[in-house]
Design a protein that fits this description.
Helix content is 28%, strand content 31%. It is an alpha/beta fold and 302 residues long. It folds into three domains: 1-82 and 171-180, Periplasmic binding protein-like II (D-Maltodextrin-Binding Protein, domain 2, 3-Layer(aba) Sandwich), CATH 3.40.190.10; 84-162, D-Maltodextrin-Binding Protein, domain 2 (3-Layer(aba) Sandwich), CATH 3.40.190; 182-302, ACT domain (Alpha-Beta Plaits, 2-Layer Sandwich). The strands form three sheets. Strands 1, 2, 3, 4, 5 and 11 form a six-stranded mixed beta sheet that branches. Helix 7 runs antiparallel to helix 8 (245-257). The longest helix has 15 residues, at 283-297. The N and C termini lie far apart (58 Å). The protein binds prephenic acid. The site of prephenic acid has 16 residues, from helix 1, strand 3, helix 4 and helix 6. Pathway: Amino-acid biosynthesis; L-phenylalanine biosynthesis; phenylpyruvate from prephenate: step 1/1. InterPro entries: ACT-like_dom_sf (IPR045865), ACT_dom (IPR002912), Chor_mutase/pphenate_deHydtase (IPR008242), Preph_deHydtase (IPR001086), Preph_deHydtase_CS (IPR018528). One of its GO terms (biological process) is L-phenylalanine biosynthetic process. Residues 191-269 form the ACT domain. It catalyses: prephenate + H(+) = 3-phenylpyruvate + CO2 + H2O.
Length: 302
């Protein structure tokens, strides 16, 4: 049985994602995202499940930063979960002055809290389930949690299906140390983090290397390197799998152009969206072109 660290404690959205990505495996809760990834790097877990992106609040920056620091880890699978919240209180609570949750969750229920709990102060906790723990301990009055949290903590349900934006989703990754890659499926996502050289047009050149090969981006985030003010790393997700000639060709070009490129994985997309390829940018076009150059070099073809 594999050991899967996840961003916990019990009752987080990430725990549900881990159950979907690694059914039947042993789940080990970690208090923070860096701690879940550190458990894999230390060999205490075989893989980790962490959130990466929310359709309302965008990137989960703790995950981006932890994936670009320390020893490399690669994503091998992803899952998309619908996100709506329950609001939990201690049984018998009559006045709600504080509402606790993960900052991403608070941002997704801001209007609901203003309308339904006027005057209540939002308080950030390490996760949605950590908010439930804190409410149970009497630290805060209400917790904004995953619906499943009420099964783990002795709290009363004040409201369900709470969300300012309908049909919100969060994408979660299963990451592990570099090893055998998942096979390409034709509907894959590749992720990298690239440190461009600090000069005019560097980001535009980097993106052009992808664009000229007909590679469709699915996400782009910039994060500071934290060493020099104004210096950034770019987290780029795009359609395709590293084993495809056109993706390999693009990665080789980025490796030439950037100060540093870290490969963060190629795996099937949870939304199933098949990779669309522009005319002239199909894998066969790349292999045909390489074969043609080879034949020219051998003098077989003018
Ligand atoms: O706190 C949790 O339950 C999490 O799994 C984290 C997280 C996030 O990082 O965005 C996951 C989904 C929701 O968008 C809110 C919080």
């Amino acid at each position: 049985m594999s050991r899967i660290a996840y961003f916990g404690p019990q009752g987080t959205f990430t725990e549900q994602a881990a159950r979907r990505l690694a059914p039947g495996e042993e789940l080990l809760p970690a208090e923070t995202i860096p701690a879940a990834l550190a458990a894999v790097r230390a060999g205490e877990a075989d893989a980790a499940c962490v959130p990466i992106e929310n359709s309302v609040e965008g990137a989960v920056t703790a995950t981006l930063d932890s994936l670009s620091d320390a020893e490399p880890l690669v994503a091998v699978a992803e899952v998309l979960l619908p996100v709506h919240f329950s609001v939990l209180t201690r049984p018998g609570t009559t006045e709600i002055r504080t509402v606790a949750s993960h900052p991403h969750a608070l941002a997704q229920v801001r209007h609901w809290v203003e309308a339904n709990l006027p005057g209540a102060h939002p308080v950030a906790t390490s996760s949605t389930a950590a908010a439930a723990v804190a409410v149970d301990a009497g630290e805060f009055d209400a917790a904004v949690t995953a619906p499943v949290a009420v099964e783990h903590y002795p709290l009363a349900v004040l409201a369900t299906e709470v969300a300012d934006v309908r049909d919100a989703k969060t994408r979660f990754l299963l990451v592990r140390p570099p090893g055998e890659l998942p096979s390409p499926t034709g509907a894959d996502r590749t992720s990298i983090v690239a440190a461009a050289t600090n000069r005019t047009g560097a980001l535009a050149e980097l993106l052009t290397e992808l664009a000229v090969r007909g590679i469709n981006l699915t996400k782009l985030d910039a994060r500071p390197t934290r060493n020099n003010f104004g210096e950034y790393r770019f987290f780029i997700d795009f359609e395709g799998h590293v084993t495809e000639p056109r993706i390999g060709d693009a990665l080789a070009a980025l490796r030439r152009r950037c100060r540093n490129v870290r490969f963060l994985g190629s795996h099937p997309r949870a939304d199933g969206g098949a990779t669309e390829v522009e005319p002239g940018a199909a894998n066969e076009d790349f292999t045909d072109a390489i074969d043609w150059v080879e034949s020219v070099r051998k003098g077989a073809q003018a």
